[in-house]
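Cross-check.
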Amino acid sequence: MGRNLLIATVIGACVGSTAQSDVALNIGYLSVFEPQPPTLSNLDPEPADIGLAGALTGLSDNATTGRFLGHTYTLTDVILQEGDDPLAAAADLFAETRFLIVDAPAETLLAIADLPQAQDALLFNATAGDVDLRRDGCRANVLHTVTSDAMRTDALAQIFVKRRWDDLVMITGTHPQDVAYADAMRASLTKFGLALSGEKTWAFDADMRRAAAQEVPLFTQELGDYDVLVVADELHDFGRYILYNTWQARPVAGSEGLTAVTWSPVIEQWGAAQLQSRFEEAHSRDMTSQDYAAWAAMRTLGEAVTRTDAADVQTLRDYILSDDFELAGFKGRPLTYRDWNGQLRQPIAIAHPRALVAQAPLEGFLHQTNELDTLGLDRPESNCEAFE
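Predicted model, tokenized:
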């Protein structure tokens, strides 16, 4: 069900005669099978190694530094199939390591975090964007390297304000992920002084590959005129058929068109092209947002070990949540963690498939302590008490 992946590091001589101590850190990676409903198109199949490839790239980056400091990193990955028990698999991993990168839906992540074996462990959420995981459902032993839905919708709301696109309509799918994204979008629009002037629910079961040019114009006609059509289609089911088929020739944003994402192949500044090329050379594909989140989790641990010369949970967690921690994330500014809910602060790319349009937070959106906290739940909004 899994395999042990080891990158051994060579103890090097340090500057002068001071020797670094030997530190070994084993990290677990758990991918939980999540069945997905059928979609209208299979044009973009999900890579079989999504997430894991990012963790492996981070492992390699850690080893580059570790070989000079006497630090050794190993990765034990477990990829579950349909019917496998994620709690049993997590318990087995906790017998080997106290550090776990998790690719799982929110309810499974919480169940893993609540296991007795997890109470003195540190988990990294690399997949679930659910806002409640950073709010009432937060756990002290869970940090989030994946951006929340609210961070992504806040980024889009900022560009709507900046471009003075204030007449907005939305089409929402029926799947839970679509509804959650739509809820986050409404909250973001309210936060930045905007509102929807119209909404519709997409509940078609027809084959849009043949009928989109006929059905979509009629479906969107009653929305009237507007500045931007927001699409809440997190499964990427119908959204691709909305573009260029609307009754009004207007921009499409949200899950399709102009999107706000953790990572994109079109990010090339701030040294990102180097990370992109390393990843592509190793895995023969582009890096995704999920890969980046797993990479960031692995690099967070590597950076913490480098700075503290330790490998125990308490020391690393305390350092990661401290003001001293910074992660070079190839996004133009250091990444840090919110000490009130464990979310990794990071800029959000606003892009279309061919180019980067902007990076949030946008100029003019100010914050009393950190402009990155204009994205997602700020301290007064989080209601998370586990980190107090």
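The radius of gyration is 21 Å. Residues 5-19 have pLDDT under 50 and may be disordered. Passed to J.P. for a second look.
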